[in-house]
Amino acid sequence: MKAKASKKAGGKTTAEGMAMAKTKAGGKLCVATLGSHSALQILKGAKDEGFETVCVTTPNRTKLYSAYKFIDEVMEIPSFKEFDSVEDELARRNAVVVPHGSFVEYLGMEANKKMRTKYFGNKHILDWETDREKQRKWLSMAGLRLPKQIHDAADIQGPTIVKLYGAKGGKGYFFVKNKREFDENIKKLPAGEKISIQEYIIGVPLYIHYFYSPLDKKLEIMSMDIRYESNVDSLGRIPSKHQWGFDVEPSYVVVGNKPVVLRESMLAEAFSMAERTIKASQKVCPPRGLFGPFCLETVITPKMEFYVIEISARIVAGTNLFINGSPYADLLYNEPMSTGRRVAREIRNAEKQGRLDEILD
Ligand code: AMP
């Protein structure tokens, strides 16, 4: 087994280092990511594709990530926010960073954009993903069915979900049926909190994981999951007559993911929705638009209609179920193909074809 180095963060960013980060080309590429979210899947996939791998993480997680032999080096930083302190070292290693859900969450949007290390994906699409109004414009342009957006609480007439603007993982969301319930709940939020009020779609939530290859101009369905959310997914275990008289509000905090396959007669629509999303992304965010892994978060009604409640323009944690492939990935590849490995293969293909500039930012 290869010896593993665990390094403390390097010194402060220097002008020399910055120049090196920008200009260094050639040499063996390695794949790096933050030790969180889907790092194990991404780095296992990268190793399977023959890359050296680096995990940048915080001291409390060093032992965990050092336990995996597909991780060649664990670089330690005091907190994720200090990612820039390892950028010179990553440039020296000719690293490509594969972003996941923790990047924007821990580093913040601006730090993500300013990252100097080679980055798999299009950073410009982040603006279209994180701004709820822009995202709606993009998804409407793709002709997707979206829950109605409510601009004035006085118009709430029926099941409605109130989402905190910047929240992730359903934290702090609440359910209301009328203006009175809205007023009661909104009091509990800090003044000035930005919210989005949306028609609540009653149906089955389904998260579809895709990969779009800009090299081959091909879309792939990689896998699907259903999230397990506390407490909304357990309320059904208590009969309604027992729920009377105790004050329980549904909450939507994601705590896990379950694998699922979609009724095959609905697959063509699932494919088409993603194709249209990619096409629209090239219009709103030209020229490259969205590429690599992404997820359409949908709710399917009894009429078998998909409503798209959100898009994640990156690898989502639900893909962690499929480190050894999924029923859908098996149909496309005769080998275990996770989304993380698919990203690494795209990097490898781009490198072989001399087209790295098309997939990196
Ligand atoms: P999100 O932050 O948009 O991924 O939403 C977190 C969770 O809230 C989802 O997984 C759903 O369970 C629930 N949710 C969000 N929007 C809607 C909606 N319009 N209709 C029904 N459920 C929703």
Q: Strand-and-helix sequence, N→C?
A: EHEHEHEHEHHEHHEEEHEEEHEHEEHH
Mean pLDDT, rounded to whole units?
Answer: 90
What CATH first level of the largest domain would be assigned? Alpha Beta
Bound molecules: adenosine monophosphate
For the largest sheet, list the strands in their spatial order: 1-4-3-2-5-6
Find the CATH superfamily of the largest domain: ATP-grasp fold, B domain
Multimeric organization: single chain
Radius of gyration: 21 Å
Q: Could you give the count of β-strands?
A: 15
> Which CATH architecture of the largest domain?
2-Layer Sandwich
In DSSP terms (H or I, runs of 4 or more residues), the helix count works out at 13
Count of discrete domains? 3
- The secondary structure category is alpha/beta
What distance lies between the first and last C-alpha atoms, to the nearest angstrom? 33 Å
Shape: globular
Beta-strand content: 25-35%
Helical content (DSSP H or I, runs of 4+):
25-40%
Descriptors for this entry?
single chain; 361 residues; 3 domains; Rossmann fold; 6-stranded parallel beta sheet; Dna Ligase, domain 1; 25% strand; binds adenosine monophosphate
Task: Tell me what the structure shows.
The chain is an alpha/beta fold and 361 residues long. The chain has three domains: 14-119, Rossmann fold (3-Layer(aba) Sandwich); 128-144 and 202-240 and 253-337 and 347-358, D-amino Acid Aminotransferase, Chain A, domain 1 (2-Layer Sandwich); 149-199, Dna Ligase, domain 1, CATH 3.30.1490. Helix content is 30%, strand content 25%. The protein has 13 helices and 15 strands. Strand 2, helix 2 and strand 3 form a beta-alpha-beta unit. The chain is globular and about 65 Å long. It binds adenosine monophosphate. Adenosine monophosphate binds at residues 147, 161, 170, 173, 198, 200-201, 205, 227, 229, 252, 297, 299, 309-310.
